[in-house]
Amino acid sequence: MQNSIEFLSEKWKEFGQSKPLEYSFFDENFEETYRSEIQAGKVFTSFAVLAIVIASLGLFGLAAFTAEQRTKEIGIRKVLGSSITQIIMLLSQEFMKWVLISNILAWPVAYYIMHRWLEDFVYRININLIYFALAGLITLMIAILTVSYQSIKAAFSNPINSLRYE
C-alpha cells in the first residue's frame, strides 16, 4: 500500500504539481460520512433495549395482577376440568390480542419515520413488509415469554388454595 502511495506521489510531482498529493481512503471517508449515523444507531439501540426491558417489566406486572385477579376463576375452571393449556391460553390470549393491535397501529408510523429517514441517503433499501412482520413476531415472542411465567404459575396452582375461602 505504501509503495503505491509513493509511486502516485512521484507521478504527481512529475506532472509539475507544486502542492503535495492529498489522498484519502474510501473506508475512512465512508466512516467519517456516516459517523453520526453509527453513533445515533448505538444510542437508538441502547434506548430500544431499555424500552423493551421496561415494557416487559410492566407486562410482567400486569400479567401477575391479572392472574391474581382471576385466581378464583382459574380455580373454578380447573375444578370443572380445564386443562393447563386452556388456562395458559386463557390468560395469554388477551395480552397477545393487545400486542397484535399495537403492532398494527405502530406499523404505519414506523413506515413513515423510516421512509423519511431513508430519504437522506443516496443509496437506500426498500422498506419491505417482511421487516414489519418480523418486528411483530419478535414483539409477540417477547410478550409470550413475559406473560408465560405468570400464566404457567397460575395454571399449575392448586385450585383448593384459590377456592378455600369462598
What descriptive keywords fit this protein?
single chain; 166 residues; mainly alpha; 7 helices; rod-shaped
List the helices and strands and how they pair.
Elements: H1 2-14, H2 26-33, H3 35-69, H4 71-79, H5 84-118, H6 129-155, H7 159-163
Give the helix proportion (percent range). over 70%
- Helix and strand composition category: mainly alpha
Biggest sheet overview: none
| Shape estimate | rod-shaped
Order of helices and strands: HHHHHHH
What share of residues are in beta strands? Answer: under 5%
- Count of alpha/pi helices: 7
Unreliable segments of 5+ consecutive residues = none
**Which radius of gyration do the C-alpha atoms yield?**
29 Å
Average per-residue pLDDT, rounded, comes to 87
Number of strands: 0
**Oligomer type:** single chain
Distance between the termini: 84 Å
Q: What's the quick description here?
A:
The protein contains 7 helices and no strands.
Would you write up a description of this structure?
This protein has 166 residues and is mainly α. It has a domain at 59-163. It is 80% helix and 0% strand. It is built from 7 helices and no strands. It has helices spanning 2-14, 26-33, 35-69, 71-79, 84-118, 129-155, 159-163. Helix 3 packs parallel to helix 6 and helix 5 runs antiparallel to helix 6 (129-155). The chain is rod-shaped and about 100 Å long. 10% of the residues are buried. The mean pLDDT is 87.
